[in-house]
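Quick start: read one record
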Amino acid sequence: MIKPDELKVFIATAEAGSFVTAADQLGIAPSAVSRSIKGLENRLKTTLFNRTTRKILITSQGQWLLRHATKTLDNLDQIQSHFTGDMTEPEGELTIDAATPFSLHVIAPIISRFIEDFPKIKITLVCNETITDLIAQKVDVAIRIGELKDSTLKAKKIGHTQRALYASPVYLEKFGVPSSVKDLEDHQCLGFSHSKSLNTWPLFGEDGERVTITPHIYANSGEILKQLSICHNGIICVSKVTVKKELEREELLPVLENKTQQYFIPIYAVYYSERTVGLHIRKFLDFIDEQAVF
């Protein structure tokens, strides 16, 4: 009979594409992974992986088993959670990855409530301005803004945001308030160095195409760009949630509000697979969905 632990080793190996990486994730020796896979192949009388000196490739039979094994372990987790989840106090280490502005303006203001409710969960916040490899960086939950491209990830939509243009009163007094999209050609625009797509602003030019600016100053963080703008260096385009306090204090003012296209950008909490979602991760997913304000 196939054991659940064997399926866990098999799935980890299939998803990692490496005995060594799977072993690292599972906290066991690579030789133990190899023995488990070999024993499973012998029991099923099939080849699950083709091995070369550099890598392993899952076979068609392995692909079939991967689909069904994942569902089987999901069902086992659901059964276990149903009977023990409400009686167990969640604990464990939880690593959350998000861009710096999201961590500062969304997670930081509410995380104390989560810690008060679940004191045995140890939180690590990691800030990255680029897409993170959850497995390689050992991240449990990552916050991603925009449509998802990685189909291997599970995702929970937790809200949406909008991008808009802002500048300081001092800057606008010095350079003038733009009244049309074309006026931006005479202004200092601040943009991203790491994700050039963010330099396409929610504006349409005379040709009907979205406007892509050439930054006067580049930075790899929206928070740095915001500070540059507060210090009168130019116009920024960032998520509305990151400038609430600056707008209240009138350190920043909206620019071209009547020209900005109002569209919603989805925000997702992503994680690698439902089968590995422990109670502490599920509690955080529910918490961020219910408590986050955008």
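Residues 60-84 form the longest helix (25 residues).
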